[in-house]
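User: Last request for today: this protein with adenosine-5'-diphosphate, please.
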Amino acid sequence: MSARVRALSLAPDPEPTEPAAARAAAKPMLKFEKVGFDYDERTILRDVSFAIRPGELVALLGPSGCGKTTILNLAAGFIRATDGVAFVDDQEITGPGPDRGVVFQAAALFDWMTVADNISFSLRCAGKGAKERRQVAEDMAALVGLSGVEDLYPYQLSGGMRQRVGLARVLAAKPKVMLMDEPFSALDVQTREVLQEEVLRIRDRTGCTILFVTHSIDEAVFLGDRIFLLTDLKQGQFDEFQVELPSPRANGDNRLDASFIKLRETIYRKMRH
Ligand SMILES: Nc1ncnc2c1ncn2[C@@H]1O[C@H](COP(=O)(O)OP(=O)(O)O)[C@@H](O)[C@H]1O
Ligand SMILES: [Mg+2]
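Assistant: Here's the final one, the structure of the complex with adenosine-5'-diphosphate:
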């Protein structure tokens, strides 16, 4: 029986009521319905549909030029769909908003501001006082593993630390959804792997929904609850993989797990054919 019928019925409801939490969890946080996008006359996407649950991490995987950033830009509201509709938390996406935070490949930090001021920048824009800004900066620095460097300037940080500041700055605005576009691809392998684990810990602590764009199969398998392998977005086609890895997910040893290796091979073969 649908919720609508039940609401109209005067008879006692014979079915157990679904718990509110389960209902909320079933509602997608990010949804595309037959979304299309053209640059001038050129079709980039057509009929792209998917739904991402609250707290889920979906990796968008595909070769350069396949449309990953276009999907992320549509979700961010930087560009508008030519056809179809994109939703965040049931609201149609018509532009950027504080419910969505975007992390790019290079953290565009303000070089003249300290780490703390960079992290709490959105609070300053919202007119929050110095004490609250400092507290949030310290909390977010701790969340991304940066405690103790709040008073340094960006030029005093390594590339990995700069990306952590970029992540903390986005998290300070408490977004429902984080949109990450190849955020670690300019970093060395070790730093990248540490930050991947950090992303999973942050997701667990904040419950944030994450759309993570990458062209690395390993990164997609390590991070994703699901992977969308973008094959032909002009026809709305992509392959979906469910990732089954041991919990907790934020464990580097998962890279050695048999299911990790198997899924990596499956996706590799799929990408080659
Ligand atoms: N501003 C733009 N104007 C015209 N075409 C664009 C623009 N940005 C991207 N494209 C084209 O859209 C396609 C998808 O690009 P993009 O989403 O950036 O791919 P990816 O992130 O997977 O590398 C590419 O063919 C690219 O050339
Ligand atoms: Mg891109």
